[in-house]
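ASSEMBLY PREDICTION REQUEST
Request ID: AP-0331
Submitted by: J.K., bench scientist
Number of chains: two
Total residues: 418
Priority: normal
Notes: Please return the full assembly, not individual chains.
Input sequences:
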Amino acid sequence: MTIPLATDGIWKEMLRKQKQFDFEFLALKMLLGRLIMDVERDPSEANVEKCAVQLHDLLAKNQHLPSAMNDIQKICS
Amino acid sequence: MSKVLFSIDEVKQMISQGYNLILAGDEMALRQLPRGHWIAGTTPYFMGEEGGEVSREKILVTGIPGYATAAKIQTYDTGTISGVYKDIPENGFGFILIPAFTEIHQVFSLKAPEFPDFATRPLLGWISGILLDDLGKVTPKVINGETGEIIDSKAVMLAVTLPPKIVADINILNIFKQGTGDEITFATDGFEVKEAIVNGQTVNFSKYVTEKSIDTKLPLVADYSGAAVNISIQAVDTAKGTVAFYAPVFKDVRYRFAEPVDNYFREFMSHVLEDDYKEYATSNMINKKSVLFSCNCILNYLYSNLEGLKTGEMTGPITFGEVAYQLLNQTLVYLTIYHLA
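STATUS: Completed
Returned structure:
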């Protein structure tokens, strides 16, 4: 399963709560929760892009974990 | 059920055999141990193989499995703690012990989410404590077994490297859910507040809690994209007009008090069983994973009378705070090791 690129719109949709998933990977839930608040405080395109890179990188670094694999599948489906 | 609580002599023998160990025990028991490759935090409260118990003589042992390729002990002060996530191996986990009621506890609790590489690698651990009767008489400690340092102002971490195909993942069991009551936010981060913003109105929070007759055994709960994160109330001082917490509240995070729980133990065990069932029903990982460590909060132990009760495979120290990437309260944290095909 390939992780969508950091520039893929899915990350921004998650950060703006336009797309919500029932994630398993605890680190993803915690980081996403914080980044959503960050984007609410600063909704500028530059900040959203910076946050999208953080989400992408977290999953890229942890894609071997079963919980992260399941979440990547949810994002891609 | 594997044995997790050992006598001081048994632990001395394990240390002499060169095992990498994470220990929990009363300070007087831990002080009797020889130097070796171990770290420890103080607590006399445990969920042992025979159930919840208080002991000043026994030591709870978590052994790092022999397949780990490295296990490095590091200490952190308030100036270096920000590097903690970066020090965790690329494949492995970091196990941190932090003494309660200290500046390092405060700094980690408040700032961890802003540290470089927050959450990118597994960091778990717990906040060391003391027998509650000893509050004010002794301080919680952590110990670097390699140097023999007994520390009440620094954190200690064991950074464990795992071989390829063996991975570590952290999870939590939290029986509390956000209730449907008022939405509560705070204007600043902190362990103590005077004011809160309740449904958009600024109020004195101690007055609010008192007037609403809120059960302060229930934590405030924030929803981090599906992960319920608790903030437990330590004290409500109506004279000073303050409310103190066991973990900091964060500016702009939306909290609600938790839904009441009728019977903690029943709820807890149903969560454990539900998790096992989900795993069994949906995963091909069954029989390829094991829980290496778990810890639970002193507040859950006290409020739910866990002394003498067994909580399945979830044994471990009873703590003054739990770490799963960041500080948590009233939550069971556990580390699962997966052997990938």
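REVIEWER COMMENTS: The longest helix of chain A spans residues 45-61.
SIGN-OFF: pending second reviewer
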